[in-house]
Description:
The model has no long low-confidence stretch (mean pLDDT 89). This protein has strands at 5-12, 20-26, 29-32, 35-44, 48-57, 68-76, 79-85, 101-109. The protein has one domain: Lipocalin (Beta Barrel). The chain has an eight-stranded antiparallel β-barrel. By secondary structure, it is an all-beta fold. The chain is globular, with a radius of gyration of 14 Å. It has no helices and eight strands.
Amino acid sequence: MLESMFLSIFLDASHFKGEPAVFLDSGPTIVSPLGVGIDKRLAQTNTVSFDMGAFYLFKTNELMGTNLNFIITVRYKKLIYRHISHGATFGIAANKANAGYNFIGLEFQL
């Protein structure tokens, strides 16, 4: 049986203000023009969920210095916050740029 598929449309809310992004989520798989990833639902209520996983960025830049990153997603109904960064806070690749993406957007079931 196929997992449900969701299309998410975002704008970055911090370092890349206003930069759009699109993600396609199906089960643990995340696909975007930015990269690909997998995540796992760690907590869920009737209206809120929290997912965490790994995300591979296709291209690094002056604010995102590593290809391999963490991805954290918090959903409230159809509203989503998604953060992508490599975890310098935890001492991982502390010498690399790590501004992180902070996306806010909406999710639609396909």
